[in-house]
Amino acid sequence: MMNDETEQFEQRLSRQTLKEIPAGWRAEILTLAREAQAARHATPVTRHSLLSTINHQLSTLLWPHPKAWAGLAAVWIFIFALNFSMRDKTPMVAEKVLPPTPEVVAELRQQKILFAQLIGSSDVREAEPPKFFPRPRTEIHFEVLTT
Amino acid sequence: MRGLDIERLYDGHAQPLYAFLLNFTRDEADTRDLLQEIFVKLAREPQLLDGVRDERAFLIRLAHNAAIDLMRRRGTRDRTKENFAAEKSSPFAPTSDPDEKIFRDELAIALGELPEEQRAVIHLKLREGLTFEEIAAALDIPPNTAASRYRYGLDKLRGRLRPLYEEMKKAE
Questions:
Q1: Residue A45: its chain B contacts at CB < 8 A?
Q2: Residue bearing the bigger pLDDT, B50 or A91
Q3: Percent of chain A having pLDDT more than 90?
Q4: Comparison of pLDDT for A56 and A104, the residue scoring more
C-alpha cells in the first residue's frame, strides 16, 4: 500500500515537464567553445623544462612564507661569503720547503754525533737513529713471556 | 587524441545538463555560466573524454563538480540566499492546466527547500532514470548515501505536498 503510494508519487514527479534550454544559448556557448578550441590549436604545447619544473616545485614548497625563506637564504649566503673572505690565502710553508739533500742530512747527523760526544759518550748511540732489525714473531713472544 | 565534435556533444547533452544544473542552482544565470564553463573546458581539454564510456554520466559529474565549486566560491551567505531561489527559477515548464500549475509551483518550492545534494539525487533518479550505483558514481558518493539522500528527500517532498497531492487525486 505504502509502496504503491510512493511509486505513484514518484511517477507524478517524473511526469512533470522540465523547462527547455533557451535556444539562444546554443550559439553563444558554441561560439565560446570554438574560440577555446582555436586558441588551443594556435598555442603550441609547451613542454616544461627541468629548470622550470624545479622552479615550480620550489615555489610551491616555499610559497607559505617566501620572505622568511628568502631571509634564511640571504643569511646563508652571508655566512659563506664571510667564510670565503676570511680564508688564509698565504701558501703553506711545507709547499715551499724543498726536501733536504743527502749532504745536508749527513752534515746534520755529523753535528748531532759531535754534540752528543761533547755532552757525554753514552748519548752518542742515542743520537744515532735506532736501527730496526726484524726478528721472528716467536722470539718476540718469548721475550714478553720472560719479562 | 581525437578531434572533439563540440556541436554533437552540445546537442546530445546540453538539455539534460541544463535541467540538472537549474534544479541544483535554481538560478538561470548560474546555470548558463556553468554550462559555458563545461563546454569551454571540454573544448580546451578534449582529452578529458578519452576512455569515457558513458558520456552523460561523465558530463553530469563534471556539471556537479562545477556547481559545487561555484557554491564554494560564493560562500555561505549566497548559499543561504540560494535556498530562497525556488520562486525565482523553477525547473519546470509553464503549463496551461491550473491544477498542474499549482502542483508544479508547490513542487518547485518544496524542491528548493531541500539541500542541493538531495535535490541532485532526486533529479538523477526520477528524470535521468539512473540507478543508485550510477548516481553514486556521478556524484562521487557511496551508493548507500545516494539511496538515503533519495529516501529523505522524497519523504520531505511527500510530507510537504501530501495535502495538495491527495486533493488532486480525489479530484481525478
A1: none
A2: B50
A3: 19
A4: A104
Does A121 fall in a domain? yes
| Whether pLDDT at B96 is above 80 | yes
Cell of A39: 586558441
Q: What is the mean pLDDT of residues A100-111?
A: 88
Task: Tell me, yes or no, if A37 comes closer than 8 A to chain B by beta carbon.
Answer: yes
- Does the beta-carbon distance from A13 to B107 stay under 8 Å? yes
**pLDDT in the model for residue A118:** 84
| Residues of A with Cβ-Cβ distance to B157 under 8 angstroms | 9, 13
- Whether A41 contacts chain B with CB within 8 A: no
Count how many domains chain A has. 1
User: Residue A18: beta bridge partners?
Assistant: B92
pLDDT of residue A145 exceeding 60, the answer is no
Please give the residue range of the domain that contains residue A109.
99-146
Phi/psi class of residue B140: alpha, beta or left (left: φ > 0; alpha: ψ in -120 to 50)?
left
Q: Which residues of B touch A29 (CB under 8 A)?
A: 10, 14, 32, 35-36, 39-40
| A115 assigned to some structural domain | yes
- pLDDT confidence of A39, banded at 50, 70, 90? confident
* Grid coordinates of A33: 567553445
Contact B93 A21 (CB under 8 A): no
Delineate the domains of chain B, giving CATH numbers in brackets.
6-171 (1.20.140)
Determine the 3-state secondary structure of B92 from DSSP. strand
